[in-house]
Design a protein that fits this description.
The chain has 355 residues and is of the alpha/beta class. The chain has twelve helices and nine strands.
Length: 355
C-alpha cells in the first residue's frame, strides 16, 4: 500500500437519487480540490449531500456524471489499493474482539502475516487505551469506543481519511477531547482528511479549509470555500485578528441609560461612605470605646499620616515581592507551553486526555 499524501480532485460532479418516482438532484457540477496532507471539513445542513460526497470519494457510490480522482486514480482503484481509512458516525466495532484485535483487524485482512503488533500497540497507546487493550467493546464507554474506531483507521496509515461525523454521538466535553486527539494522530501521519461535520466550532478548530455545502430546496451546490491559518499544532501559529474598523457612536441608544456616569451618581456612594465613617467616629466618642477594641477613623488616619514613610516602605517591599513572583510564574509558564507545543510527548504528559 502506498503511503504518499493524497491529492483529491472533483470536477463536474453530478449525483441524483430516485425517490417515489421523482428524481432528486444532490450534486450538480460540483467542483472541489484538496491538496496533499490537507485537512478539509465539509459543512452544510442535513440532506445537502455531505455523507453522499464522502461515499462517492470512497468508491461506495457511483456518480451520474463528472470525475473524481485520487492521485490520478478513480475511487474504485484507490479503494482496492487500500488508500482510504473510513471512520463512520458509530464506532462499528466487532463485539467479540478485544480493543487490540479491533484495532489490528483491518491490518490482518490486508496482510497474510497478521497485524503489526508493535504498530497496533503504539496506536492504542497514542489514543490512551493501553489499560483497556484486552477489554471488549461492551466494557467501554462511548468515547472510548470512538477512540478505538480512530485507532483502527490510523493503524493502517492510509494516505486519505474519510470521516463521517465521527463525534456526533458524544457529549460536548468528550467531543472536545476527541478533536485534539484527532489532531495529534493526524499530525504524526500527515494524511489527507475529508471530515464531515454539522458543528461549526469543530470545523474551525480542526481544519485547514472549510467547504460549505448550501441547499436550495433539495438541490445542493458548493456554496463557499474558506481557507484560513488554523491554530492546530502542525502550523504552530495563530491567525492574527485584524483590528476593528470604524468608530463607535457616542449617542445614547433610545430606551437605555447612557454609559456616562453623572455627578449625582458619583456623589451618592461617596455620601454613603462619609456617613458610615461619621457614625463610626461618633459612636466611639459617645461610648468612649477603647482604641484597642475599635479605634476612631480619625485616629487611624492620623497614625497613617504620621508614619507614612514606614507604611510606604513596607508596601513597596510587598509590591516588589508580588511582581517578582508573577514574572517568575510567567517565564516558567511560557517555557512549559513552548515545550508542549514543540513535543507531542510532553504535551500528553502535561495535558493527558482523560478516559
Amino acid at each position: 500500500m502506498s503511503t504518499e499524501p493524497t491529492t483529491l480532485h472533483v470536477a463536474g460532479l453530478r449525483k441524483t437519487f430516485s425517490r417515489n418516482g421523482a428524481i432528486h438532484t444532490v450534486f450538480d457540477d460540483l467542483q472541489l480540490s484538496i491538496a496533499a496532507g490537507e485537512f478539509v471539513s465539509i459543512l452544510g445542513p442535513s440532506g445537502c449531500g455531505k455523507s453522499t460526497l464522502l461515499r462517492l470519494v470512497g468508491g461506495l457510490l457511483e456518480a451520474d456524471a463528472g470525475d473524481i480522482t485520487i492521485n490520478g486514480e478513480t475511487p474504485t482503484e484507490a479503494r482496492d489499493r487500500k488508500h482510504f481509512g473510513f471512520v463512520p458516525q458509530t464506532p462499528a466495532l466487532l463485539p467479540w474482539k478485544t480493543v487490540t484485535e479491533n484495532v489490528g483487524f483491518l491490518q490482518s485482512l490486508r496482510s497474510t502475516g497478521g497485524p503489526d503488533r508493535t504498530s497496533v500497540a503504539q496506536t492504542i497507546s497514542d489514543v490512551g487505551l493501553t489499560p483497556v487493550a484486552s477489554s471488549l467493546p461492551a466494557e467501554l464507554s462511548g468515547g472510548m469506543q470512538q477512540r478505538v474506531s480512530l485507532a483502527r483507521a490510523f493503524a493502517l496509515r492510509p494516505p486519505m481519511l474519510l470521516m463521517d461525523e465521527p463525534f456526533s454521538a458524544l457529549d460536548e466535553i468528550t467531543r472536545s477531547d476527541m478533536r485534539y486527539l484527532l489532531l495529534n494522530l493526524w499530525r504524526d501521519t500527515e494524511a489527507t482528511v475529508l471530515f464531515v461535520t454539522h458543528n461549526i466550532d469543530e470545523a474551525v478548530v480542526l481544519s485547514d479549509r472549510v467547504v460549505v455545502l448550501g441547499a436550495a430546496g433539495r438541490h445542493c451546490r458548493r456554496r463557499s470555500d474558506r481557507t484560513r491559518s488554523t491554530p492546530h499544532a502542525r502550523h504552530r501559529r495563530f491567525k492574527r485578528i485584524p483590528p476593528l474598523r470604524g468608530r463607535a457612536s457616542s449617542r445614547p441608544v433610545p430606551g437605555r441609560r447612557s454609559p456616562m456616569i453623572s455627578l449625582r451618581d458619583r456623589l451618592i456612594p461617596l455620601s454613603g461612605i462619609a456617613l458610615f465613617f461619621g457614625i463610626w467616629e461618633l459612636y466611639v466618642r459617645v461610648f468612649d470605646v477603647r482604641p484597642i477594641v475599635l479605634p476612631r477613623p480619625s485616629l487611624v488616619v492620623g497614625e497613617v499620616v504620621t508614619n507614612v514613610d514606614f507604611y510606604a516602605g513596607h508596601a513597596l517591599v510587598s509590591l516588589g515581592e508580588a511582581t517578582g513572583g508573577l514574572i517568575i510564574a510567567l517565564v516558567l509558564a511560557s517555557l512549559v507551553a513552548t515545550l508542549m507545543v514543540m513535543s507531542s510527548t510532553i504535551e500528553r504528559a502535561g495535558w493527558p486526555v482523560p478516559s
